[in-house]
Amino acid sequence: MQHNLSLRITGFIASLILTIASYFIIINPVFFNFDIKEAAVVIFMLALVQSFVQLIFFINVWKEKDALWNLGVFVSTISIIFIIVFFSVWIIDHLNYNMR
Amino acid sequence: MEVNDTKVFGFWVYLMTDLIIFAVLFSCFIVLHGNTFNGPSAKDLFHLPSALAETLILLTSSFTCSLAMLAVHRQLKSWAIIWFSLTFLLGVSFLYIEISEFADFVEKGASWQRSAFLSSFFTLVGTHGFHITIGLLWMIVMMFRIALRPLVEHSISRIFRMALFWHFLDFVWIFIFTVVYGIGYLQ
User: Fold this and answer.
1) Does domain B2-186 bear CATH number 3.30.1380.10?
2) Which end of chain B is less crowded, N or C, counting CB atoms within 10 A of the terminal residue's CB?
3) Which domain holds residue A41?
4) Between A and B, how many residue pairs show a Cβ–Cβ distance under 8 A?
């Protein structure tokens, strides 16, 4: 995996396709029959797929001897980030709603 | 090998804490992105083609960086330097687009002092740009290292960590493109 050229090229092409797809959804959501909320959800999903492409094809910390440690830190960081982002947005959104 | 694995693990832990910094700045931006204080909004300011150009440049630089790492693993010094120089040039052009975009905003009166939206925007994107600058400096040092020193195990591990940092910045940028430029532009 670490020394494989064709995997890098696959990852590169996949990331280009995902970026260009989300670009066209952003500039013309009507063409794809999305309203603004749906378009936002779709491009965020594309970004998640894109981030997985980056993690799998380019960020090579999953093949070492202690790869499980790397994965463990990654998963716990993602859960911390979920808590920070999701709950701050949630709380502030409700405060905003109640104080209007 | 064991020692180098531990070093990669330590660097990985650093990257993850850095990711938390970005997450905090992201949530700050998401909370404040509507507070424009009657100033320009995201839709008025953002020039989406240049954001796309920045994204494509960074994705390509991530790819060339991985090619450079392949060359490093195969002990092909000159190829490694060629690919790292290309990565470096792409990184510089990314920074150039970003800074000219910032200068354009400030010229239009949309500096970080204008509104909470712009403060959070400049903080988030500026922090990423600062990381890119550090990454570029680090890349210069590593290119000299490749040119002057033999590519032994611990040397490769150092270069690998620099490449990891570069891929990480690309990873963060994907979310800046989507959340800041994309969703900002949609509204």
Assistant:
1) no
2) N
3) 1-60
4) 124
